[in-house]
Amino acid sequence: MRSEKIAPVILCGGSGTRLWPRSRVSKPKPFLALVGEQTLFEQALLRCADAAHFAPPVVVTGAAHVDHVESQLSIVADAEIVIEPQPKNTAAAIALAALRLPEDTVMLICPSDHHIGDPAAFTTAAQAAAELAREGWLVSFGIQARSPDTGFGYLRRGDPIGAHGFQVAQFVEKPDLSRARAYIASGDYAWNGGIFAFRVSTFLEELNRFRPRLMAAVRKSVANGSLNGRCFHPEAASFRDVEAESVDYAIMENTLKAAMVPADMAWSDIGNWQALHAARQRDIHGNTVRGAAELIECRNILIESDGPRVSAIGVQDLIIIVDGGDILITKAESAHRVGTLSAAANQ
């Protein structure tokens, strides 16, 4: 009998450089409580915790993060952890999870490092995407584009499919500002947030069609893998032969089965400190403070300190982060460059 429940696949990893010094290679942003009291990983789990709609999750992560995953998985009743032998990008990570699920299952691919302010809207979009996936579509969430952001890829909406979906007419790489403004003005484009719904069999068929070598290597790695408690270990030797490629490049930009569902759910990828500032509650002057701080006549300031008191007078559009022995000070408009710091790259 076919299960109507959606199987969440939580992708958990990353190096953490863009939110340095708070996020580090040893503990990247999914495992930090950046917005609210729960970590981003815990929030991802809780969004998919309603047993009426969702099956137990499959978490795909690397060996370096297993302890973090296991310590925070206590908020869900059951889960399987698939431990990647090495990072090979999202196509392989999703394939590992797919090969651990029944072929008629609809899996919902959820990055673990995003913030979604409207979980109910997320569930509604997930159900709409699952219906299209059961019909054989490979479905992206088309995130409501609120601004001409040049840091995201875009989806151009095509012909309608049923009541809630559309074909994807075009996948667009990160545009320059003038093109991003044109996309927003047209009303035909949405952000590509990296959230997908696939029926397992459809995904594996399309992956084999477009990336047969990758598919063969992952399949061999899973076939020769081992289960230890709730942790599944794919065979490392076979996995070394896997090509590192995103699911967008490997499948979504090639398939004729690409669809999208609109999703207006207060989404943020928390891609840098400025994005985090925008996702947090701010005072009437646009300031956000965590830790000991005093602000006088300041506007649009983000301060986060794990110890020392930070005082600021008469400044605006600044981000000040104190973590252990490291201090970051940057203009908000330069926050996207934090990952280029040598300290962040060699943390």
Give a brief rundown of this model.
This protein is 27% helix and 30% strand. With 347 residues, it is an alpha/beta fold.
Molecular structure report:
- With 347 residues, the protein is an alpha/beta fold.
- It folds into two domains: 6-268, Spore Coat Polysaccharide Biosynthesis Protein SpsA, Chain A (Alpha-Beta Complex), CATH 3.90.550; 273-345, no CATH class.
- The chain contains eleven helices and 19 strands.
- The strands form four sheets. Strands 6-9-7-8-12 form a five-stranded mixed barrel. It has a four-stranded mixed β-sheet with strand order 14-16-18-19, with helices on one face.
- A hairpin with a 3-residue loop joins strand 7 (153-161) and strand 8.
- It is globular.
- 45% of the residues are buried.
- The model has no long low-confidence stretch (mean pLDDT 94).
Write the SSE topology.
Elements lengths: L5 E7 L27 H8 L10 E5 L3 H7 L7 E5 L4 H10 L7 E6 L3 E2 L2 H16 L3 E6 L9 E9 L3 E8 L4 H10 L2 E11 H11 L1 H12 L2 E3 L2 E3 L2 H4 L7 H6 L5 E6 L3 E2 L4 H7 L8 E3 L2 E4 L2 E7 L4 E4 L2 E8 L2 E6 L10 H4 L2
Parallel strand pairs: 1-2, 1-4, 2-3, 3-11, 6-12, 14-16, 15-17, 16-18
Antiparallel strand pairs: 4-9, 5-13, 6-9, 7-8, 7-9, 8-12, 10-11, 18-19
Helix pairs in contact: 6-7
